[in-house]
Design goal:
single chain, 316 residues, alpha/beta, Peroxisomal Thiolase, Chain A, domain 1, 2 domains, five-stranded mixed sheet, four-stranded mixed sheet, 9 helices, 13 strands, globular, binds oxa(dethia)-CoA
Length: 316
Amino acid sequence: MLLGTGGYLPETILTNAQLTETIDTTDEWIVERTGIRERRIAAPHETASSMAEIAAREALEAAGLAPNAVDLIIVGTATPDRIFPSTACLLQQRLDIRHCAAFDVQAACSGFIFALSIADQYIRSGNAKHVLVVGSELNSRLVDWSDRSTCILFGDGAGAAVLGAAREPGIFSTHINSDGQYKDLLYVSNPTNSRGEINESPYIKMQGNEVFKIAVNTLEHIVDETLDANGFVQSDIDWLVPHQANIRIIAATARKLKMPMEQVVVTLERQGNTSAASIPLALNEAIRDGRIRRGQILLMEAFGAGFAWGSALIRY
Ligand code: UT7
């Protein structure tokens, strides 16, 4: 079950109005096409592991657990501090946790759902008792700030959840999937090639419109698949906690579920798209402000580069 959550957002706010000073865009266009009004930008000294540490400590405190009670750490990130070791290992060192496995999951915006799915398997099989699952992203360093079609979308932040074994499972099911044939619609090149030379532009490249259409279709399918797998109907869901890429994608999924937007946790207006961090950040916010209550049923879903997508149905 989900024992506790935490989140961290960097202090600096970058508004749409500020973006209009450097690129050819308007606040109206960004709000209408994406729903985003502002995003957070990490300070130069911050990294995926430093943000993850703050979110993780908050989640552990909420769970009432000392760091050393954790026996598995999984971090979803596409913006690791180092290529290796994993950000999860750096987080383990920051938390001074000894003797547990720690590794990253690279599933872009779906990283948290993929990590949650792995955590669930470990807990179900009895191989882990307490798993720390984190999404942490420094998207501002992957964005080409002169590309108006992508730089308006992304933000930085970290979210964390602590899962624990329980008699009644909190996670009913997780569903993850990938299709590498779409590798060129949304990607970031490795900044160096195998000989250490600098590669082509190491920034996010996206054919937004294509990604948008496939995201809407795919998410509609996975929502059905998740409900069917558990014998649930749409009205059983109390909250939709979606990946925060675009308000129009979120609204399409809510429509499919016949859910009013009041039952959807939306954070992208103030945070933009924080990739793997967006679901745990949204979850944490709605739990802490009292919207999500114990016993309620939550549906989480994400879609991102790969393409890689997934969902989780849980009882909080
Ligand atoms: O999280 C991982 C998954 N990512 C996503 O799910 C993102 C999915 N895609 C999207 O959210 C949307 O496609 C975008 C928000 C990226 C773009 O919205 P769109 O409605 O698909 O716009 P578009 O790319 O079709 O562009 C429409 C027009 C173009 O002008 P022309 O060619 O029609 O003259 C763009 O040049 O809007 C223009 N445009 C902009 N105009 C003002 C693109 N970016 C901007 C901008 N400001 N920032």
